[in-house]
UniProtKB/TrEMBL annotation:
Domain of life according to the entry: Bacteria
Binding, isopentenyl diphosphate: H46, H79, H129, S228, S229, N230, S273
HAMAP family in UniProt: IspH
Name of the protein this chain belongs to: 4-hydroxy-3-methylbut-2-enyl diphosphate reductase
Catalytic activity field: isopentenyl diphosphate + 2 oxidized [2Fe-2S]-[ferredoxin] + H2O = (2E)-4-hydroxy-3-methylbut-2-enyl diphosphate + 2 reduced [2Fe-2S]-[ferredoxin] + 2 H(+); dimethylallyl diphosphate + 2 oxidized [2Fe-2S]-[ferredoxin] + H2O = (2E)-4-hydroxy-3-methylbut-2-enyl diphosphate + 2 reduced [2Fe-2S]-[ferredoxin] + 2 H(+)
Function: Catalyzes the conversion of 1-hydroxy-2-methyl-2-(E)-butenyl 4-diphosphate (HMBPP) into a mixture of isopentenyl diphosphate (IPP) and dimethylallyl diphosphate (DMAPP). Acts in the terminal step of the DOXP/MEP pathway for isoprenoid precursor biosynthesis.
GO BP annotations listed: dimethylallyl diphosphate biosynthetic process; isopentenyl diphosphate biosynthetic process, methylerythritol 4-phosphate pathway; terpenoid biosynthetic process
């Protein structure tokens, strides 16, 4: 039986960012250096495949420090942690490695600097996301006010409208955030913003690629996890850019073949925590049913790399 033709527009950049790459390397190097088990507080990055792979190598994933024995190393996830967490680990004299992405740490430093200058902080982010919890947890309780929407900006009650600054989560929608920032600046003209955008290069680049790719495709799949903020944003960006069907899939088994009946072209991208092996798995699943031609849609080149912490670079 001849297979129907299908053009796959493959977004680039897609998948792993430098922060995710570094966080995974940190766990692997810690396992090499100290042996298993190595404890990891929270999913190191939001991807089940990555977490399962590290678990098989000897990593143990826990939610709190209390779940870690005092005599084993513990790693903090790429999303960042409230200040209280490393302080508590140090108090307990635990061996810990912080895998917080340097671009998230940069936001932490920004927030602390504004606080020291006497400004109250507003964070644009998603309530309950570990990155938001980590960033808000850099300052004393009540010093960071969270806004998620333009409507929240109208409601937020601040101490002094003349002494405010804002930071953002790194994985937000570039367009939604621009609207929220504009609303903040309209209501609080004196508000101080980041020197440079807090939304990171990887989030921005992946969204840009989707904006170009989505209008070319009858449908679009984002390989990523349901708890991955940047992956969910890519689905929204694709739908907004005019793609009639934009869907998140963790891997090939999630593909809804009925919904894709009759398509002639498909866009594929992957969130910053999704490994390329899962993108290939999805493409291979289409090859079984279609005569596939892959066309890359390249909108940027990335060459960002972050060093792992010194403790892991030193030989034992
Ligand atoms: S998405 Fe951006 S901020 Fe988050 S880990 Fe990757 S590079 Fe760092």
């Amino acid at each position: 039986m001849t297979k129907p033709p299908l053009i796959i527009h493959l977004a680039a950049p897609r998948g792993f960012c430098a922060g995710v790459d570094r966080a995974i390397k940190i766990v692997e190097m810690a396992l090499e250096k100290w042996g298993a088990p190595v404890y990891v507080r929270h999913e190191i990055v939001h991807n089940k495949y990555v977490v399962d792979d590290l678990r098989a190598k000897g990593a143990v994933f826990v939610e709190e420090l209390d779940d870690c024995p005092p005599d084993r190393p513990v790693i903090f996830s790429a999303h960042g942690v409230p200040k209280s967490v490393p302080l508590e680990a140090a108090r307990r004299q635990m061996l810990f490695v912080d895998a917080t992405c340097p671009l998230v740490s940069k936001v932490h430093i920004e927030a602390a600097r504004h606080h020291e200058a006497g400004l109250q902080m507003i964070m644009i982010g998603h309530e309950g996301h570990p990155e938001t919890i980590g960033t808000m947890g850099q300052l004393p309780e009540g010093e960071v006010l969270l806004v998620e929407t333009v409507e929240d900006v109208a409601r937020v009650a601040v101490r002094d409208p003349a002494r405010l600054a804002f930071v953002t989560q790194t994985t937000l929608s570039v367009d939604d955030t621009a609207e929220i920032v504009a609303a903040l600046q309209a209501r609080f003209p004196a508000i101080v913003g980041p020197h440079k955008e807090d939304i990171c290069y990887a989030t921005t680049n992946r969204q840009e690629a989707v904006k170009v790719m989505a209008p070319m495709a009858d449908a679009m799949l984002v390989v990523g996890a349901p708890n991955s903020s940047n992956s969910k944003r890519l689905v929204e960006v694709g739908a907004r850019a005019g793609c009639r069907y934009a869907q998140l899939v963790q891997r090939a088994t999630d593909i809804d073949w009925r919904a894709l009946e009759g398509i002639r072209s498909l866009g594929i991208t992957a969130g910053a925590s999704a490994p390329e092996v899962l993108v290939n798995e999805v493409i291979d699943a289409f090859r079984e049913r279609f005569e596939v031609t892959v066309k890359p849609v390249v909108t940027a080149e990335e060459n960002v790399e972050f060093k792992v912490p010194r403790v892991l670079r030193e030989t034992a």
